[in-house]
Amino acid sequence: MHVVSLSNMRAFFYRAHIVRKRREKVGMKNTVATFQEMKAKGEKISMLTCYDYSTAKLMDEAGVNSLLIGDSLGNVVLGYEDTLSVTMEDMIHHTRPVARGAKNALVIADMPFMSYQASVYDAVMNAGRLLKEGRAHAVKLEGGAAVCEQIRAIVDAGIPVCAHLGLTPQSINAFGGHKVQGKSAEAAQTILEDAKRIEEAGAFAVVIECIPADLARKISETISIPTIGIGAGPGCDGQVLVYQDMLGLFSDFKPKFVKGFANLGEQMTQAFKDYDAEVKAGSFPAAEHCFKDVGEEVLDKLY
Ligand code: KIV
């Protein structure tokens, strides 16, 4: 007879509990409310940029909390040197497949340059399009005090807003390049003030980009909404990266804050070289890649 000891049973139930918890975590539907809960519990939030269906499915299955259709689309997908030329149509076009691929992740779509700056009316109507046509769950826009009216109006329309402070790429011409922000006492104070203002205006989260890590920690401790950092250190409530950067798929420039989690660029280049060589050598396609022959009898009848 097989005797199960008490300690074996305990170990079995403990393992089952861990597996269930892990499954619950991966299968958890992420919402603006779960973002709040995660901050309250001190759980870190993961976010990645995403621009298509297949990648959205992979990220979602991996348990990433949020997929951001960033206007970095302009750089890493469309090949522009900045984000300024990205249109509402571009954003909607790429938000739709991501929303179809994401079953659990919170889908956030960026509002592109000049889709919200000129008027509150533009801001509400364009945010609405990203939900209605793109099927995003929330929108992201850049700026602090200057866009609080827009944030308030979009939130009043029932659309969750993620703000974006620090290095805001749509203002690249005003900054004079990709520079770390908030380095002086005055600039740091402005960013902290902006963070308080966007929270008051109703934003549910804020991306903070390229600011000193201690300033990002101070902001994260001061406001009650989650901060999602990129180049802002470990003190933020979550982190976001452009996925082509973290997979080694984008070589035009590599910011200091990027960690390469894989080098798929090298693997892809090698695969493309192998394919090119096999096509040219006539070794691809091989028999196993071909459909059954129609046969001589059929071929002989063809004219
Ligand atoms: O557009 C984008 O990808 C972003 C992230 C860098 C946060 O805004």
Short descriptors:
about 300 residues; alpha/beta; TIM Barrel; 2 domains; eight-stranded parallel β-barrel; 13 helices; about 10% strand; globular; binds 3-methyl-2-oxobutanoic acid
Structure overview:
The protein has 303 residues and is an alpha/beta fold. It contains 13 helices and 8 strands. It has helices at 6-27, 32-41, 53-62, 73-76, 88-101, 120-132, 148-156, 172-175, 185-201, 213-222, 243-246, 264-281, 296-301; strands at residues 45-49, 66-69, 106-110, 138-140, 161-166, 205-209, 227-230, 238-241. The protein has an 8-stranded parallel barrel with strand order 1-2-3-4-5-6-7-8, surrounded by 7 helices. Helix 10 links the parallel strand 6 (205-209) and strand 7 (227-230). The chain is globular, with a radius of gyration of 24 Å. The site of 3-methyl-2-oxobutanoic acid has 10 residues, from loops.
User: Under the CATH scheme, which architecture of the largest domain would be assigned?
Assistant: Alpha-Beta Barrel
Structural class: alpha/beta
- The helix fraction, in percent, is 40-55%
| Helix-strand string | HHEHEHHEHEHEHHEHEEHHH
CATH first level of the largest domain: Alpha Beta
Secondary structure layout plus pairing:
Layout: H1 6-27, H2 32-41, E1 45-49, H3 53-62, E2 66-69, H4 73-76, H5 88-101, E3 106-110, H6 120-132, E4 138-140, H7 148-156, E5 161-166, H8 172-175, H9 185-201, E6 205-209, H10 213-222, E7 227-230, E8 238-241, H11 243-246, H12 264-281, H13 296-301
Parallel strand pairs: 1-2, 1-8, 2-3, 3-4, 4-5, 5-6, 6-7, 7-8
Helix pairs in contact: 3-5, 6-7, 9-10
